[in-house]
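Private note to self, pasted from the team thread so I don't lose it. Backbone tokens:
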């Protein structure tokens, strides 16, 4: 059994690593090309001064402009400084990490179109509603008076298609080398689970029969800072072993939506009350999405 399990684990590691590498570089390249045509300054112009349906527009721009948390937070400050409604900027902040095209692309490849569409719809609606709720609760005064300086030097770069293509390819490779260790760790853990962890144990601990699995997974995901590139291969195996799809969603949203680096950055521009609200909001989104998935896919 030991040799057979090792062979299964090694086979899983090789196949999934190749698939993830191809998918990640391909999706990151397309995302980079998109950002060449929709830079942060364009997002600010679209939202600044708009009130009608601003939360929907904020969430939509957060979904199609795949900035990492290091960029999303300064952009939010720039939106507020440019006159964008606080609620719209909040919806942008909530939607950007959860509806990142890389996440959706990996979901589509490994979880199927139905799960991807349901995930996108639920997280989009919650980003719109909760961003509006933040504004209604008067949390706008919890943003520190900070201003971003500098910006993307678009006027110093060539804008012909070839230059955009080169920058997109270079950016995709740079992102890939940055996430490669996390990707390999995730695949290695997934391969170990695939080959050696009994399915009965996984189903008992985190299966649909355990109602506490979803909130526990959401809470665990935040301090673990589980990158999606790490979680996808692990999640694929856990699903085969019996974990509920809702538990997996809660774990991914907790890790992707409120990672420790992002919360640390937020603390530099948000007062403590708003930082706590942000973490609780992501926790709520993770739990609600998890239970919704378990109901839909029961």
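Design output:
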């Amino acid at each position: 059994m030991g040799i057979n399990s090792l062979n299964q684990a090694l086979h899983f590691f090789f196949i999934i690593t190749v698939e993830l590498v191809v998918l990640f570089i391909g999706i990151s390249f397309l995302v980079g090309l998109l950002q060449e045509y929709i830079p942060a300054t364009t997002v600010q112009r679209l939202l600044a001064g708009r009130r009608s349906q601003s939360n929907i527009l904020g969430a939509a721009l957060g979904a199609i402009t795949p900035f990492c948390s290091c960029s999303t937070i300064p952009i939010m400050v720039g939106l507020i400084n440019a006159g964008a409604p606080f609620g719209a900027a909040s919806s942008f902040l909530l939607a950007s990490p959860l509806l990142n095209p890389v996440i959706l692309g990996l979901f589509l490849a490994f979880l199927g179109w139905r799960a991807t569409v349901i995930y996108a719809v639920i997280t989009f609606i919650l980003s719109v509603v909760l961003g509006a709720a933040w504004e209604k609760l008067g949390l706008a005064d919890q943003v520190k008076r900070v201003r971003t300086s500098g910006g993307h030097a678009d006027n110093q770069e060539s804008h012909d298609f070839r230059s955009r293509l080169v920058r997109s390819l270079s950016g995709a490779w740079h992102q890939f080398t940055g996430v490669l260790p996390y990707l390999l760790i995730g695949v290695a853990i997934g391969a170990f689970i695939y080959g050696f962890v009994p399915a009965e144990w996984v189903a008992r601990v985190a299966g649909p029969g355990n109602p506490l699995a979803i909130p526990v997974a959401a809470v665990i995901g935040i301090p673990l800072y589980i990158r999606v590139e790490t979680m996808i291969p692990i999640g694929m195996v856990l699903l085969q072993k019996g974990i509920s799809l809702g538990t997996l969603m809660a774990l991914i949203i907790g890790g992707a939506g409120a990672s420790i680096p992002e919360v640390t950055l937020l603390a530099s521009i948000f007062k403590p009350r708003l930082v706590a609200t942000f973490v609780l909001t992501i926790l709520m989104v993770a739990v609600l999405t998890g239970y919704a998935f378990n109901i839909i896919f029961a």
